[in-house]
Amino acid sequence: MSRRDFRLFIDELAPGASLALPAAPGRTIYVAAGSVRLEDDASAVSLPENGAWQGGAEANLAAAGGATLLRWELGGAELAGEGVSSRLALGTTIELPAASCLLRCDRVDFPPGGTALLHTHRGPGIRCLLKGSIRIETAGTTHSYGPLEPWFESGPDPVFAATSETEPSAFARVMILPAELRGKASIRYVRPEDQAKPKSQRYQVFIDRPVRL
Question: pTM to 2 decimals?
Fold first, then answer.
């Protein structure tokens, strides 16, 4: 195993702003608001709101009408540009399970009053709330989060989550998982009786790709 810095940045681009992205391993971008045009040596793509992209090479992006981006990287840094506000939202150190891992970016939505029953995951991940509110209970602590507030889950530590009683809630996340989990759920319920219970959360997977890190 190797230890790496795992970070989430929040980049705000004003209308017409552009941003040069240096090479960074494990980079994943999720568009929380607005839209961007992203170009690297291999391709050019337009990413709408609720769209995601993964790639570690140098790239350039532009936001004609402005955008808010969530940017996960192994390492990485705050970036500068005219009309760009970039900040480190959360950083931690993780142990990669192997040289070749699965990088998964997805979105989890809850109806009002939704919960995630006590569970674990097969790898670490950084989440960021998109809307609503969420309460996370883990390792003897309880924390509540609002929009664009991030939190880290180690994977093996059991977690219970409860969301707003009055409005829908959702978060986006990137997890680093064993490669054999491609196309498979990473969640494991702690109590066997919870496995068959109805679940309120719904998943939208954007990226589920083995990468060498």
Answer: 0.95
